[in-house]
Amino acid sequence: MHAYRTHHCCQLTKADVGQTVRLSGWVFRVRDYGKLLFVDLRDHFGVTQVVIDKDSDALQIVQAVRVESVLKVDGKVVARSGDQVNPNLPTGEIEVRAESVEVLSAAAELPMPIAGTAEYPEEIRLKNRFLDLRREKLHSNIVLRSKVIASLRRRMIDQGFTEFQTPILTASSPEGARDFLVPSRLHHGKFYALPQAPQMFKQLLMVAGFDRYFQIAPCFRDEDARADRSPGEFYQLDFEMSFVTQDDVFAAIEPVLYGVFEEFANGRNVTPPPFQRITYKDSMLKYGSDKPDLRNPIEISDVTEIFRGGGFGVFAKAIEEGSIVRAIPAPGAGTKARSFFDGMNQWAKDEGFAGLAYINFKAGVGGGIAKNLGPERVAQLVEQMKLGPDDGVFFACAKKDVAAKLAGAARTRIGQDLDLIEKNTFRFCWIVDFPMYEWDEVEQKVMFSHNPFSMPQGEMHALETMNPLDILAYQYDIVCNGIELSSGAIRNHKPEIMYRAFEIAGYDRSVVDEKFSGMINAFRYGAPPHGGSAPGVDRIVMLLADEPNIREVILFPMNQRAEDLMMGAPSNVSPRQLRELGIRIVSEEKPS
């Protein structure tokens, strides 16, 4: 017999009745019924019920240990009687009657229980992550993650991609988020950077002639945490393709994502390819976001002209000063009490906006600002937005970007409050035609809006003849249920176009040559047209696991302050280590 187990704890069935077996696992639950002691023994695979008679030598052993102690149990498999069968367990038709028990490892008093579904403070959970990972939901999330990655890898290989690993220690880049820097011991005063993404390396692979590359790539960005973003590090399905158009990239990755989501959907609906394509301009208008949740049927409209010069003076004046008006319908809200409408207005103010005006069409009669706007303009509004007799409509009036942000947030809140969000479904879409540049109000200059390595639509002609803010790029995002899974682009593979693109954003040739020397030099020796993307693995698993926070699908996440409470990182290092690196810690001076 094996030293620790003949079977795992989810393996035994009625076919094994009469066998003598050996199991090892953790004490999950103990139930004492006087004459009998029942122990739920748990391992990675599942749970088996162990029964110990009061006359057994094993009784005192089990009674003396705490839950989560590790036991080795020898015993005979017996069938449960009819009323004792547990249909919710794969092993629910049997139990193991213990003949001997050995304590392999005794557990101390737990800082948090493993059984049950109660929530515990994040600090306790992260500090004791090894215990937290024993809990059923989190354990299953991590197993799901492994299966999703295996499925992604298999599907990419089936699509003709080859897996390569790119460097972790690389050079700092002036674009994107903050780098994590690694000091060089051999070259004092110089630093490596952990890669924010394998962007340049994967493009160099295309120049090297490998055609279709992918990897499950670790990426490192010194960013603040969010519900859908872990601080420090994350993983993405990074891929790149040669001799492709934007359509070719979409055709390659859509079946991979659809296949993975369908495989792990567990009864939920998944958008079949081809995924809907929405221009950035239309997305910002209709949904107030470049990450639209298409489960929400609400579409925003621009109604600036209806309000221009109208009787609602606050809006009319704001329009003359450069504001716009976006209208957010609220289907069926006319049946709601006035408190619903006033509550939305107060919510907008609490979020830092000026507020939301509204019209409430209760039984076809307009309330709110309808009287100020006037019947003719209200009729235009009803016609343009196809409003029904019991609908409501809210209005966001502000400068373009602010109005879009408020309208998008209001669309989401209205959809949730009116229970309009489609259940049990994954809705994919592509956002395409991103602007190549945007205006930075703080720096008062043109800057890249998305990815600096993207090919502008119209190539050099566009860069030379168009207003930079009107230039579109071959850039695209893939979005699922309001979560951005990936950004990607058809790359700029021509040195002269790259120099000009960076020049418009304020970088001269010397900066490009210094910061991107490896790539710009490679492009001089024959670079194929290429493009790709990088769907986020953590976010894919978060959606499939139906978890609101990304930390629930990561093995050992940091907290929101980028601290590893379990390992004590970041930590101080010894003076000797600092000397080797040529680094001296300068204390921050306190203001006098």
Keywords, please?
592 residues, alpha+beta, 8-stranded mixed sheet, 5-stranded mixed barrel, 19 helices, globular
Radius of gyration: 30 Å
How far is the N terminus from the C terminus?
73 Å
Largest β-sheet summary? 8 strands, mixed
Tell the overall outline: globular
Mean pLDDT: 94
- SS-based class: alpha+beta
In summary, what is this structure?
By secondary structure, this protein is of the alpha+beta class.
What does this protein structure show overall?
It contains 19 helices and 24 strands. The model has no long low-confidence stretch (mean pLDDT 94). The protein has 592 residues and is α+β, with helices and mostly antiparallel strands. Helix 4 packs antiparallel against helix 6 (246-263), helix 5 packs parallel to helix 17 (517-523) and helix 16 (509-515) packs across helix 17.
Reconstruct the topology from this structure.
Blueprint: E1 20-32, E2 36-42, E3 47-53, H1 58-63, E4 70-79, E5 94-105, H2 122-127, H3 129-132, H4 136-158, E6 162-163, E7 181-183, E8 191-193, H5 199-207, E9 212-221, E10 232-242, H6 246-263, E11 269-270, E12 276-279, H7 280-286, E13 301-302, H8 304-307, H9 313-320, E14 324-330, H10 338-350, E15 357-362, E16 365-366, H11 370-373, H12 375-385, E17 392-398, H13 400-417, E18 425-426, E19 428-432, E20 437-440, E21 445-448, H14 459-465, E22 475-480, E23 483-490, H15 495-504, H16 509-515, H17 517-523, E24 530-533, H18 537-544, H19 575-581
Parallel strand pairs: 3-5, 6-9, 11-18, 12-19
Antiparallel strand pairs: 1-2, 1-4, 2-3, 4-5, 7-8, 9-10, 10-24, 13-14, 14-17, 15-16, 15-17, 19-22, 20-21, 22-23, 23-24
Helix pairs in contact: 4-6, 4-18, 5-17, 14-15, 16-17
